[in-house]
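Hello Y.,

Per our agreement to keep a running log of every chain we model this quarter, I'm adding this entry. I've kept the format consistent with earlier entries: sequence first, then predicted structure.
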Amino acid sequence: MTEIPEHLLKRSRERRAAIGKGDDAGDADTAASTPASTPATTEKAAAPAGPSGPPVRAAAPAPEAPKPPKPDPAYVTAAKQRRKVPWWAMATLGLMPVWGFMYVRAVTEPPEVVEGPLGIGAEQYGTCAACHGAAGGGGVGYPFAGEEVLKTFPNIEDQLRYVYWGTGEYNLAGVDIYGNPDREGGPHVTNGLGVMPQQGSLAGGGLTDYEILGVVCHERYTLGGADPTSEEYEVEFEEFCSEESAVFSALEAGEFSLADEEVPALVDEAGEEFEIDVIGPPVEGSPAAAEG
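Predicted structure for the entry above:
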């Protein structure tokens, strides 16, 4: 049972007395009739009630204090304390390779550019190098280096003829020996070492007459070792292989062909006329040597 608070009982007695329905005695009797167990119930009811609503969450545990960072090694500390290169210096350093390249180009002499027959010949010789070697050392074909080509062809006209027509046309013409028949070490026999492809246009080759002259000049003077200042080759070089070569200029202009059986008189750099031996079709031996 629930105990009635004293102030309510007092207010009730006063109210009842005012309306003539009771007095203090009646209230006293009523209070006296309250069971003895009331105090125990009152004590239990008097306990403060717990808070209503959802249960209160327990506070989260406080986070652990962060561990102190590990000290940097000595080399890392030294790197951090080292003075940094300023940005403008980095830009300057980045341009150093370019400046170096420009400096080397400025102090390096440009390679000598060969003009005329020798320049043309060096460009066209690539198709010959597979058989005769890049430096003229030979292989499938005969060598040019060490004056070997000069032993076979003492005169440039005979070499021009053989390169123009090739072994195929020499075979058809029944020519067994081309070039110098008295060659040191023995003459070269047609088809004696592989096949020399024809290079002239009338024989089905792919080179022009002036390109053939350029290749032959390259083989004789650049690879073969002929000395253009020597008494033996000075005239030949000036007429056929120099940058001012009148023969090269005439072939380039189409004034005559290596296959012609007649060659007009030519004019050298000094304005003087000169004649060369006819190249013409395949012939036995070396007509130029015989006429010389």
